[in-house]
Amino acid sequence: MDKIINSLIDDLKNIFRERIVSVILYGSYASGDYHKGISDINLIIILDKLEAKDLKIAYPAIKKWKKTKNPAPLFMDRAEWPTSCDVYAIEYSDIKDRHKLLYGEDIVSSLTVEKNHLRLQCESEIKNLLVRLRQSYLANSDNVKVIDNVIKKSSTSFIAVFRAVLRILEERVPPSHREVIDLFASKVNIDKDIFIEILELREKNKEIPKDKIENILQKLIDSLYQALIYIDKIKNK
Q1: DSSP 84
Q2: 9, 102 in Cβ contact below 8 A?
Q3: Residue 126's closest CA among 195, 38, 196, 204?
């Protein structure tokens, strides 16, 4: 996969030349917790200035990249990059902890993510996740595949929030998802087994048995609500 990443970087360098400020790899592939077929390879491309025509001329390189079935790289310009820390506090804090500079200037180490911004986004993410889970079950309770997919996809969101909360608490964030769940559960009154079970179902691409869907969903909702209560209390500490 490194060869494919390097090929994309070479293609972009040929297109944009000195206009590329940085190419950053972040997430599970950068931290060594990558699971083929489950995890994504995430890239950020920073240009000196980003215009619509730049996205168009980058398309041939991105078209090749899409064959890897990974998400398209996130394109941003230099001026936009540091001004988004407050809105995307979870994402930026995760990038700071789990990234590799593949090309160009180090624009990550100087970023500052405020704890109050991080806490607020954690609260928002958990509330949004609870709404998605409930509304999905309301609209698709007779469709096991849909609910199965929604539950397993929730692991991406809750792991990101757990990491962020540990950073707020100034804990060293472990590299693996299971260790993150274990450490978070040592701080917050949640049923850690349900989060581990959902994570394993996703990693092994196993379907949730029909007769267990509702029970798993309820345990997930209950534990997420406990996490929400804890996150809300952090602001008073």
Answers
A1: G
A2: yes
A3: 195
- Domain ranges in the chain? 2-104, 115-234
Residue pair 198/178 in contact (Cβ under 8 Å)? The answer is no
Helix (H, G, I), strand (E, B) or coil at 132: helix
d(CA 59, CA 56): 5
Rg of the chain, C-alpha, whole Å: 19
Helix (H) / strand (E) element for 98: namely none
Residue 109, burial from CB neighbour count under 10 angstroms (0-12, 13-18, 19+): exposed
- 130/83 Cα distance (integer angstroms): 29
- Give the C-alpha separation, 23 to 107, whole Å: 10
CATH 3.30.460.10 fits 2-104, yes or no: yes
35 Cβ contact list (under 8 Å, min separation 6): 28, 203
Q: Is the pLDDT of residue 41 over 90?
A: no
Supply φ then ψ for residue 131, to 5 degrees.
Answer: -65, -45
Contact 219, 226 (CB under 8 A): no
| Cα–Cα distance measured from residue 183 to residue 187, given in angstroms and rounded to the nearest whole number | 7
Q: What is the pLDDT of residues 181-216, one digit of tens each?
A: 999 999 999 999 999 999 999 988 899 999 999 999
For 145-174, what is each residue's pLDDT tens digit? 999 999 999 999 999 999 999 999 999 999
Sort 113 into a burial class: Cβ within 10 Å, 0-12 / 13-18 / 19+: buried
